[in-house]
Design a protein that fits this description.
Structural class: mainly alpha
Oligomer: single chain
Order of helices and strands: HHHHHH
Distance between the termini: 13 Å
Largest sheet: none
Radius of gyration: 19 Å
Strand content: under 5%
Shape: elongated
Number of helices: 6
């Protein structure tokens, strides 16, 4: 019975983490040409919105959108990892362990990109990813902090 409960917990809390990490990995595994398709999509959206694509490029809007995507990816990753870790550790410990796990994953993802044709790992992208993590950490701390929770056993 206990083993079945733990398996369900692992599937419900662990599987989303693995799936989201896989999504991030697959997005990072795109070659420069495959990634260019996203830029073309942005340009098409600008045209559809009757915005000058050249002007949007000059203003760096596609670049900002890409960085916002990094922040969003790692905001979501932090939340998913936190809901797994929070089940087993005190809140402050959970916040820090989750941050460390996500930073290590972001760094490993950037390292992975050094092996993808036309891509390169950027330390600055780990910093951008960390913005999403910190925002999620603050949200978790505000929402779940102050509960006085010591440890929640699964």
């Amino acid at each position: 019975m206990l083993q079945s409960f733990r398996a369900k917990t692992l599937v419900f809390y662990g599987l989303p983490v693995v799936l989201w990490m896989t999504v991030i990995f697959l997005l990072s595994d795109q070659t420069k040409d495959e990634s260019k398709g996203l830029s073309d999509l942005f340009l098409a959206i600008f045209r559809f919105l009757d915005l000058d694509p050249v002007r949007m490029q000059e203003l760096g809007v596609p670049h900002l959108i890409r960085k916002a995507a990094h922040v969003t990816e790692y905001f979501i990753l932090y939340l998913l990892v936190y809901r797994l870790v929070y089940r087993h550790y005190p809140e402050k410990t959970s916040l820090l362990w989750t941050l460390m796990i996500c930073i290590v994953y972001a760094a490993s993802d950037e390292y992975h990109q050094t092996f993808v044709p036309g891509r390169g790992g950027q330390v600055s992208d780990v910093g951008v990813d960390s913005i999403g993590m910190i925002l999620a950490l603050l949200g978790c701390w505000k929402m779940y902090g102050r509960t006085g929770k010591e440890v929640k056993n699964a």
